Structure of Mitochondrial import inner membrane translocase subunit TIM22:
Amino acid sequence: MEVSNLRNLVDEEVVLKTGNAAGIGLAYGTVWGGIVSMIRDGPQVGSNVKYPELVRIGKVCGNYGASVALLGATYVGIEQSLEKYRKKKDYINGAVAGFAAGATVLGFRVRRLPTAILSGSALALTSVLLDVTGMKD
């Protein structure tokens, strides 16, 4: 396949919005992780690691940042793809994207199916409520 044919298969708007959501999620998650790690109790000082508090803050920031970035990218990517595929911009796109993002990112992280279903349902409900009340976009 030629490069020009590959570009026709990928919608640039979906890729751009997904990348933006991932970047914003990474920034937000990293800041939130820093706040959370400062509120928690620190590790024992007697370990052989140099600057143990700084290492822990970095790990927490990275975990929170990666989780929120993945959540945002999954949600926006699925929502935009459904909008392009269905040619409709309604609450169903957000509900499906919310369920998929919540179930995959939040639910399967703990490796329990009931948690995945509950997390997906909670995120889908939140998305539908934001769409119906007009608070989104």
Observations:
- The chain has a mean pLDDT of 85.
- The chain has one domain: 3-133.
- The helical segments are 3-9, 12-39, 52-86, 91-107, 113-133.
- The chain is about 80% helix and 0% strand.
